[in-house]
Amino acid sequence: MQLREDIRNIAIIAHVDHGKTTLVDQLLRYSGTFRENEHVDDRMMDSNDIEKERGITILAKNTAINYKDTRINILDTPGHADFGGEVERILQMVDGVLLVVDAYEGCMPQTRFVLKKALEQKLRPVVVLNKIDRPNARPQQVVDEVLDLFIELGADDDQLEFPVVFASALNGTSSNSADEQLETMDPIFNTIMENIPAPEDNSSDPLQFQVTLLDYNDYLGRIGIGRVSRGSIKVGQQVTLIKKDGTTKSFRVSKMFGFLGLKRIEIEQANSGDIIALSGLEDINVGETVCPADHLDPLPILHIDEPTLQMTF
Ligand code: GDP
């Protein structure tokens, strides 16, 4: 099996305030994904000014970080139970999760809620014990609490072997041992690279792309976000959308986007393993599959159970 060693797709999960935003900011900063003279907003993941300018309302926050020769896609997950369905769909696009836990507070309700879903999907977690700089931090105890939670939630043997990184996202430092001096963000990056599997490379197979999240923009209309699970896709290509009821619609891919830092960038082609956004069809919905006309092979329907959607009826 060939792998796309140039990509890692992960979701970041945490209880609110445990430091997700600060951590992603530091990873971006340290990796130099931004040019030196580029202003880095203090709360980048929460700031979608670029999207606002272009009239995009973004549902899923995707940050792409270039580290050495690898692009790490980090998908943010809402911690609240109201977004359970969205969390599940986000988790379907990734090969592993970064679980951030405050080294003082320990596991909290949202830690449990999102971790349960990640474990159910057989994802491999990397645990980041954050805020290790806090004077009252109790890292070893919290690692034990995390292990207990994994056991309680039914983690398999592989998931129980989770690697741990101790970090101060605030200071931009991390280490694989609680007793050692913290260094740069390299320990976190290296732990991700070594423990989160690279996506399978099956670019030569027929295209298969499932719309996992929807976005909308005044200029482009509906935008389908998802992961290319098989094959490759190009701008201008004529493809077929398989609707939930099994009917099909042919359309031309008008624009495609990848991600860099916190921005979306236009791309011409994407291959298996890439997480992309595409436009060209007004009628696109979550759960539908895009395939070549001569190879219709829909992926299983995703369930959507957001109470917010149900309330509109
Ligand atoms: P999020 O809700 O998970 O995105 O959390 P934030 O990144 O917004 O962080 C919540 C608060 O914790 C902010 O006030 C951060 O400055 C603070 N914080 C984040 N990381 C650290 C850390 O490593 N050490 C300390 N002492 N505070 C941190």
Automatic annotation (TrEMBL):
One Gene Ontology cellular component annotation held by this UniProt entry: cytosol
Catalytic activity: GTP + H2O = GDP + phosphate + H(+)
Compartmental location: Cytoplasm
Principal subcellular localisation of the protein: cytoplasm
Molecular-function GO terms, alphabetical: GTP binding; GTPase activity; ribosome binding; rRNA binding; tRNA binding
Annotated ranges, domain Tr-type G: 5-200
Superkingdom field: Bacteria
UniProt keyword annotation of Ribonucleoprotein present: no
KW Cytoplasm (keyword) present: yes
Top-rank EC class of the record's enzyme: hydrolase
GO biological process annotation, one example: ribosomal large subunit assembly
Annotated positions binding GTP: D17, H18, G19, K20, T21, T22, N130, K131, I132, D133
Its EC number(s): 3.6.5.-
The entry's keywords: Cytoplasm, GTP-binding, Hydrolase, Nucleotide-binding, Ribosome biogenesis, RNA-binding, rRNA-binding, tRNA-binding
Physiological role: A 50S ribosomal subunit assembly protein with GTPase activity, required for 50S subunit assembly at low temperatures, may also play a role in translation. Binds GTP and analogs. Binds the 70S ribosome between the 30S and 50S subunits, in a similar position as ribosome-bound EF-G; it contacts a number of ribosomal proteins, both rRNAs and the A-site tRNA.
Protein family: Belongs to the TRAFAC class translation factor GTPase superfamily. Classic translation factor GTPase family. BipA subfamily.
Assembly and interaction partners: Monomer.
Protein name: Large ribosomal subunit assembly factor BipA
Source organism of this protein record: Streptohalobacillus salinus
Residue span relative to the full protein: 1 to 313 of 606
